[in-house]
Write a structure and sequence with these properties.
Elements lengths: L2 H20 L26 E2 L1 E4 L2 H12 L28 H20 L1 H5 L4 H16 L5 H15 L4 H13 L2 H4 E4 L2 E2 L12 E5 L2 H13 L5 H8 L6 H11 L4 H11 L5 H7 L4 H21 L4 H6 L2 E4 L1 H7 L9 E4 L12 H6 L8 H11 L13 H5 L9 H10 L4 H4 L2 H6 L24 E3 L3 E3 L2 H10 L1 H16 L8 H12 L4 H10 L5 E5 L5
Parallel strand pairs: 1-10
Antiparallel strand pairs: 2-3, 4-5, 5-10, 6-7, 8-9
Helix pairs in contact: 1-3, 3-7, 5-6, 5-7, 6-7, 9-10, 9-11, 11-26, 12-14, 24-25, 25-26
Length: about 550
Amino acid sequence: MPVILGAMRSLTLSFLLLAACDGTIGDGGGGINIESPSVGEAVLEGGRLRARVWRLTPQQFEDEARRLLGELPDAGQYPLGESEAGLTNIAVRAPVDRPVAQRIAQITDDYGTWVTENAEAVSGCTDRDCAVAYLHGLLESAYRRPATDVEQDAIATLFDSILADHDLPYALGRSVQAVLISPSMIYRHELGAPFDGRIEGEAPEGGSISVLGDYEIASLLSFSLTDRSPDATLLAAAAAGELRDPQVRAREARRLMDDSAGVWQRFFWEWLDMYRFESSATALDVSDELQAAMLEEYNAFIEDTVVLQRGSLDDVFASPRSFASPELAAIYEVDHPGSGLQPITFNPAERAGMLTHAAWLVAHASREEEFVVRRGMGLYLHALCRNLTPPDGLDVNAAQEGLTPEDATVREKVEARSNDRVCGACHTVPDPIGLAFERFDAIGRRRDVYPDGHVVDSNAQVPGIGSVTSAADLGAALAESGEVQNCFVRRVAHSMLGADLGPQSVWVNDVTDAFVSADRSIEGLVVALVSHPGFVERAVIAEGDE
């Protein structure tokens, strides 16, 4: 690589690392420390998030590059970052350290080479002035806001310096790489400008409160709900200075819900702890075709229930309506009208809601006959936002050994664990939840008798919820549970905002009240979340006051 390009690459790597550590990105960043806080420090007094920058996910970055340039070659992706409470795309968990910066540089280098090879097709340009105009437009689109004069002059200067020693396609390709690797492309900014805060509570000691700019709000809204950059309508609202108005944000959120299926499919998959689906299905010898049918049902159900029908948490947990292929309908023992994916209806007394669908049941099953612990604990930890830490040094198998005879029924094992002084500390609530699913085997078929001949009994007394007779009954009860509702709101906010607001946040409590008042409508929750002052307010900590 020529000296000038080697220097450019080193400079962009340094800029990426500096931006990630010291908060030097974007307008308004001078003198402000926007270093990503550690877990537990992402939310300050009054429920405000810190001013911050937020790295695009690998998929978001790839999608953005393809939006800007067209069908790019496969250059791979950089690491996603750690999850938090099972959720991915968490702001504090996605730093750009040196290995990530190097990987981004490699990816954008490949993209730049491809642009060089396809320069005229990509830009429509064969002369210098056209190429500079193209780059100016690319800046604005890549940065998701108007480009400043300084930024436009900088990209033109870079292009001209490369063009002095190389041909136009090469200069264009490397200039495009510079745009793609720039912090304003890779990061979403949430810095804002100072103002008098509206959330109850004082500004943090040694700091102040800022409100996000319209283009920052546009990016937050769009990526939160669609995983993509703002569309023309949202950018127009930003340009008109409308997005600080909560009613306008509510209007745009309702509109963006039409394109939010992918975000909700990822959210429910992560919130309800379904990441083991593939490994569990493989261990259970579920065929590739049937696995695909289960995933197809899951995606269709979430899109239809949350997006097309604008449904509620009750619908997700208790609707008897779903979709299935003939093969999956046979597992469910329901009529199927023909071939391919079709709407089906369950007997609501036996099966209702996604917790009774094969995908969730398989994700929480194993080769063992009893799935009580895995299914019950999965909901206890995730749907109720509970924590559970076994005592240090506890040997779980040894603790359960001898509690029941080898021929004990599943219910006898559950009761023995709950009544035991050691085991009961962890199993008293999760095990009754898991019992409600015992009518379903490992891949979701209904069963009345275990392989050992014992009769299945799914009646359960769940502490905090009450008596349930089946998984369908439990699903409806969970949707009505105040603890589940608060957990759901908290995790939706966590996923959309990339930070856990906490169980007692004023913001979460306000949104939960609005969510319940809207009959637990998921769209109503989103509207309440984005309309709240906390959505656009940020706490700014002066450098040196950490």
